[in-house]
Amino acid sequence: MTEYEKSQRGLPHIFDAPMVAMYDRAATLSTAYNRTDLQNVQKLNELLDALLKSKGDEVRIMPDFHCEYGSNITIGHRVFINFNCILMDNAEIVIGDDVRIGPNVSVYTVNHALDPDERATGLCVCAPVYVANKVWIGGDVTILAGVMIGEGAVIGAGSVVTKDVPAGMIAAGNPCRVIRPIRAEDKLIHR
Known about the structure:
Blueprint: H1 3-8, E1 13-14, H2 17-35, H3 41-51, E2 54-55, E3 60-61, E4 65-67, E5 73-75, E6 80-81, E7 85-88, E8 93-95, E9 100-101, E10 106-108, E11 110-112, H4 116-120, E12 123-126, E13 129-131, E14 136-137, E15 142-143, E16 148-149, E17 154-155, E18 160-161, E19 169-173, E20 176-181
Parallel strand pairs: 2-5, 3-6, 4-7, 5-8, 6-9, 7-10, 8-13, 9-14, 10-15, 13-16, 14-17, 15-18, 17-19
Antiparallel strand pairs: 1-12, 11-12, 19-20
């Protein structure tokens, strides 16, 4: 089993030469994306299509955007990702439809070994991150490996998300915790 195959199964692995080549490819594509005029939508979409596993319609990612491989990222329809996003897709990152992601958001699917001797060898372990439909992630949020964010949830600015967040909840803090459910009176336009 290759080191990459181990990483995708959540097994301990080391970042090896084939994985460095995947990283270099993603860095080249993301650099080209970040240097492309925002009005050149066709070129931006072509670069994202080459970089990502898949993306839906009406996806807008503001520069600077960085990822580990790109090939482990799935983005749904009508997604907006603001400036300076980092998606460390060592494992799968799935972002649903109608998601809004604020500036300076980082999503990490990899952890280095806690044991210092193992860490010195480069040993890592990965776990996927899932963001359901209609989620809003505020600015400066960090999401750690293995987290699932439920449909319609809101993650407050500056949060560090270490555990799953249920659907329809507002969560914030470091570490992030559920504050309360989203209520009818939270609507900006009352009917």
